[in-house]
Amino acid sequence: MTRWVDRVCRMLEAVIGFMLAVMVVLVFGNVVLRYGFNSGITVSEEVSRWLFIWMTFLGAVVALKEHGHLGVDMVVQKLPASGKKACLAIGHIVMLYIVWLLFQGSLAQARINWDVTAPTTGASMAIVYAAGVVFAVLAAVILALDLYRLLSGQLSDADLVMVQESEEAVQLQQILGENAAPPPGRAP
């Protein structure tokens, strides 16, 4: 199952890269056409907005899988292993519930907007809300897999804190390497 999730996330990264390239071409092409030729790509703004929405949700899936979301871990770091496990389990159960709510809401919005057409493309506005449905399904799989790994004892003590304190701390740790001393005030 983990290999399947890895493959899906690599595929999502490629899709996100393609969406970004299309978005850049549309926006840059539209700017050049407007200022250089007094014309433009009519659907550019709408499609770029949709691509941005989809990139955000798909990127959140990849970040969830890589545990790349930022969080505050100063309390959890000080807990014993059993406390860390309890916090991780509670956090994942709450996140699964939130993902369920997001799934229900996005699905309801997609159904409501199925017949609503976008102003310039004429495509269904359900495309926008489908991003939430796709995110909810993929995020639920990742969260359930992480929860299973926790409950089956497959996580090491180092894996019990699944957030990053700050981008700067992560970059500093990458620069200094894994064997470097922890920042002041943090226990090794």
Automatic annotation (TrEMBL):
Locations listed in the record: Cell inner membrane
Domain named Tripartite ATP-independent periplasmic transporters DctQ component: residues: 23-151
Residue ranges that the Swiss-Prot or TrEMBL entry lists as coiled coil: none
Keyword Nucleotidyltransferase recorded: no
Transmembrane found in the keyword field: yes
Keywords: Cell inner membrane, Cell membrane, Membrane, Transmembrane, Transmembrane helix, Transport
Membrane topology category: Multi-pass membrane protein
Transmembrane regions listed in the UniProt entry: 12-35, 47-65, 86-103, 123-145
One of the Pfam families matching this protein, by short name: DctQ
Family according to the record: Belongs to the TRAP transporter small permease family.
PANTHER family for this protein: 2,3-DIKETO-L-GULONATE TRAP TRANSPORTER SMALL PERMEASE PROTEIN YIAM
Descriptive protein name: TRAP transporter small permease protein
Organism (species): Variovorax ginsengisoli
Source organism phylogeny: Bacteria, Pseudomonadati, Pseudomonadota, Betaproteobacteria, Burkholderiales
